[in-house]
Amino acid sequence: MSTVRNPAVAGMFYPADRDDLSQVISYMLTNAKPKDIIPRALIAPHAGYQYSGEIAATAYKQLEPIKHNIQRVVLLGPSHCVAFAGCAASQADYFRTPLGDIKLDQQAIQTLVADSKVQILEAAHAQEHSLEVQLPFLQTVLDEFSLVPIVVGDAKTDNVVEILEFFWSDPKTFFVISSDLSHYHDYVTAQNMDKQTSDAIVKLQPENISYDQACGRKPVIGLLHLAKKHHMTGMSLDIRNSGDTAGPKDQVVGYGAYGFY
């Protein structure tokens, strides 16, 4: 019997109704602007869609020209609910959203487990939104694909790099890192901090990203190390904060979308 990880934040971070969700994502993607790049990896934010959905849509818009080439997505995001060391995968057969089920690549996951690159920890996935909010975008933009979802806890950079490197030689595998930027500063302070973070991301300078600059710092830094190793170029696709989208300006959360090619 198949096991399914059911959505935890449908109806909170994004619409729980299939038709409503489809309409919201289609609207955001229609209004997002394509760039002249063919990305191999993206960084996208993970707040509620009313706050960061438009920024995430700008990232996923870049996949439309290459959607037929992507057969597997390796998705990494930070843990918000469970404290643990290392990186955590799931034994579920499918991850479910209101748009349907996504099959997990359990063969790849079990190889990672056997090589001690990840552990199985269902608790890390059960309520985690950083991965879940990316899934409806992927389901909308891509054709059929398999998923390798990894929640990153208190992990070493080498651990994250090893996971990404494991899949790098497969041209049909795409990489998505889920991260917001600064949290709960005033609007101007957040803009200044997020510009510094954005510059570090685009210039592939992981050493210039501190803990308070990005909640997904660990997977972001892992991707930057790998991108630098493989001589990739980073591009900022969109950078805003909740004061620009759906919130007040006294305490904002920053959001950035980035492509690597």
Overview of this protein structure:
This protein is α/β, with parallel strands linked by helices and 261 residues long. The protein has one domain (4-260): Protocatechuate 4,5-dioxygenase, Chain B (3-Layer(aba) Sandwich). It contains ten helices and twelve strands. The strands form two sheets. Strands 2, 3, 4, 7, 8, 9, 10, 11 and 12 form a nine-stranded mixed β-sheet that branches. Helix 1 crosses helix 2 and helix 7 (157-168) crosses helix 9. The longest helix has 16 residues, at 187-202. The radius of gyration is 17 Å and the shape is globular. The model has no long low-confidence stretch (mean pLDDT 97).
Secondary structure elements and pairings:
Elements (H helix, E strand, L loop, with lengths): L3 E2 L12 H14 L9 E4 L4 H13 L10 E7 L8 E3 L4 E4 L2 E4 L2 H9 L4 E2 L1 H5 L2 H4 L2 H7 L4 E7 L4 H12 L4 E6 L4 E3 L1 H16 L14 H13 L4 E8 H4 L6 E9 L1
Helix pairs in contact: 1-2, 7-9
Query: How confident is the prediction overall: mean pLDDT?
Result: 97
Q: Per CATH, what is the topology?
A: Protocatechuate 4,5-dioxygenase, Chain B
Helices and strands, in N-to-C order?
EHEHEEEEHEHHHEHEEHHEHE
Care to count the β-strands? 12
Overall geometry: globular
The share of residues in extended strands comes to: 15-25%
Number of domains: 1
> CATH superfamily membership, which one?
LigB-like
CATH architecture: 3-Layer(aba) Sandwich
Structural class of the helices, strands and pairings? Answer: alpha/beta
**Cα end-to-end separation:** 40 Å
The number of helices is 10
Instruction: Calculate Rg over CA atoms.
Output: 17 Å
CATH class category name: Alpha Beta
The major beta sheet can be summarized as:
9 strands, mixed
Uncertain spans, ≥5 residues at pLDDT below 50? Answer: none
Helical content (DSSP H or I, runs of 4+): 25-40%
